[in-house]
Write a structure and sequence with these properties.
The protein contains 14 helices and 16 strands. The chain is an alpha/beta fold. The chain has a domain of 113 residues: Alpha-Beta Complex (Flavocytochrome C3, Chain A, domain 1), CATH 3.90.700.10. The strands form four sheets. Strands 1, 2, 5, 6, 7, 8 and 15 form a seven-stranded mixed β-sheet that branches. It has a four-stranded antiparallel β-sheet with strand order 10-13-12-11, with helices on one face. The protein has a three-stranded mixed β-sheet with strand order 9-14-16, covered by helices on one side. The protein starts with a strand and ends in a 25-residue tail after the last helix.
Length: 538
């Protein structure tokens, strides 16, 4: 297959980009690849909302910028923060024009929520399923175009570069180019190549590298792992955000998220004795940034010997809570918890990767013709810790900026160029000398081991000894998995395991390099902040 524009991932970042190029070039071929159903993305599970300066009388760009910089703990790229905050409102107006509906009050004014780290009410939301509503609007708009094709149940194995043409490609190679991807088509069980002039990675996060996560099972860090194998630049992977309040249910994965907006409405965290403990950790109490709240909960759990703390919503306005958080109320009720009578058991869970594929202000990666946006990208917005509800905003802003830059590049190439000629030389996938996997337990057990290693040694609180032990265990898992990859036919499960091991390595290696505690990286052997260690690029 061949496309003019190839988008890998069907979340808010990928769909926004695809919709823009489809409308710009009605005569060009746009392909969107998704590895399960088109709506099964991290976007779908975003509950809280999207942050933006909307109430200009009480809020300002400067306030939103300052809140973002404070949360990022010294590692945000200030020019990127300025771009995202100031371009954000226009991107939200666009998705409203596509049909996305955000909640309004009785006067018809958009209802703005407040979350941890924000100095003002600036979170637009659709009940407690904001991401799902935005996803719906974008899929509906894309379905009305005639030239955009979504291919579901199609797993991308690797990016195609000069390496596949027989050239030596290393980290020092300056002109690495992307010609498309190799994919495993679940419908045909065949490995195919899809060639493209422009390729956009919008592959989401990597929460499945941990035992407990709010991310869906598809969040296996595929884009980051592929770019690293292709010798592209990855940065800041040590900054994994743990959401403080996932619903605690033994044996349930992924964990059901209790959005931060609930605390924005006044819910209070309590320990097993019923005591409100956040006052002892931060002046902002329950609305401190996520890294602080997650560490506080972790500390309380360890001191009291419990597996969770509690979220108290009993004092909140019942009618308002039911209107804003109907799905949270229903989920709690399904396990016997009446949120107006009972405390909700919650515990931190892996939620968001602040690092990823290193990009510039237009979403360009270190590989030519390859762009990245959304959670898989490291744009410089989040620094050491993401401010709540900035992620959907970032995804839309960088989808637009990647669109602007890639269109300019596409039009400069003409109809006959070296990039196109190199595409013609790309070989088919070579599956010779591989056999059927004999024991699937080799894959499933390795995944369990990986998630246990990362949760026990590379979680909210880290030490040098834990990181060293994690790396030794990962080395063994890597060798075993690569041997399996070389000797058996490719499967989605094997590829996902391989990608997760690569992501885990990048998280641990970044954590080992950072000899300080900053933002989401908290190492008890390096509690003092060093003279700022800049972004760690791998």
């Amino acid at each position: 297959m061949k496309a003019d524009f190839l988008v890998i991932g069907s979340g808010i970042a990928g769909l926004t980009y695809a919709l823009k190029v489809a409308n710009r070039y009605p005569d060009k071929q746009i392909i969107v690849i998704t590895k399960t159903n088109s709506d099964e993305t991290n976007t779908k599970y975003a509950q809280g909302g999207i942050a933006s300066v909307w109430d200009v009388q009480n809020d300002s760009f400067d306030k939103h910028i300052e809140d973002t910089l404070i949360a990022g703990d010294g590692l945000c790229n200030e020019s990127i923060v300025d771009i995202v905050v100031k371009e954000g409102p226009e991107r939200i107006r666009e998705i409203i024009a596509y049909g996305a509906q955000f909640d309004k009050d009785d006067s018809g004014t958009y209802s703005l929520g407040k979350e941890g780290g924000h100095s003002e009410n600036r979170i637009l939301h659709h009940k407690d399923i904001t991401g799902q509503e935005m996803e719906r609007a974008l899929l509906d708009a894309l379905s009305k175009t005639k030239n955009a094709q979504i291919i579901d149940h199609c797993f991308v194995i690797d990016l195609i570069t000069q390496h596949h043409l027989g050239y030596l490609v290393t980290k020092s190679t300056l002109d690495i180019e992307c010609y498309g991807v190799y994919v495993l088509n679940a419908h045909t069980n065949a490995i195919e190549k899809i060639l493209s002039t422009i390729t956009v990675l919008a592959t989401g996060g990597c929460g499945q590298v941990y035992r407990t996560t709010t991310n869906p099972t598809i969040a296996t860090g595929d884009g980051v792992a592929m770019v690293y194998r292709a010798k592209g630049r990855i940065e800041n992977m040590e900054f994994i955000q743990f959401h403080p309040t996932a619903l605690f249910e033994t044996g349930i994965s992924p964990s059901f998220l209790i959005t931060e907006a609930v605390r924005g409405e006044g819910a209070i965290l309590r320990n097993k004795h019923g005591e409100a403990f956040m006052v002892s950790y931060d002046a902002r109490k329950d609305l401190a940034p996520r890294d602080i709240v997650a560490r506080a909960i972790d500390n309380v759990m360890k001191r009291t010997g419990t597996e969770h703390v509690f979220l108290d919503c009993r004092h909140l306005n019942h009618q308002k809570f039911s209107a804003h958080f109907p799905n949270i109320k229903a989920r709690c009720k399904s396990i016997g918890i009446d949120v107006f009578k009972h405390l909700i058991p919650v515990a931190p869970a892996a939620h968001y990767s602040c690092g990823g594929v290193k990009t510039d202000e237009f979403g360009c990666t270190s590989i030519r013709f390859l762009y990245a946006c959304g959670e898989c990208a490291s744009t410089g917005l989040h620094g050491a810790n993401r401010l709540a509800s900035n992620s959907l905003l970032e995804a839309m802003v960088f989808a637009e900026r990647a669109f602007q830059h890639s269109v300019s590049l596409f039009e400069s190439l003409g109809t006959d160029h070296e990039h196109m000629n190199n595409q013609l030389k790309v070989p088919d996938w070579n599956a010779l000398s591989t056999g059927e996997p004999k024991e699937m337990i080799l894959i499933t057990q390795s995944l369990k081991e990986l998630q246990m290693i990362m949760s026990d040694y590379v979680g909210i609180v880290r030490t040098d000894a834990r990181l060293t032990r994690a790396m030794k265990r990962l080395d063994l898992l890597y060798e075993e998995t690569e041997q399996l990859y070389r000797s058996t036919k490719v499967s989605v499960q094997l590829c996902e395991l391989r990608n997760l091991i690569t992501v885990a390595y990048l998280i641990v290696k970044g954590a080992q390099f950072r000899k300080e505690s900053r933002g989401l990286h908290y190492n008890t052997d390096h509690l003092a902040k060093a003279q700022l260690i800049q972004n760690i690029v791998l």
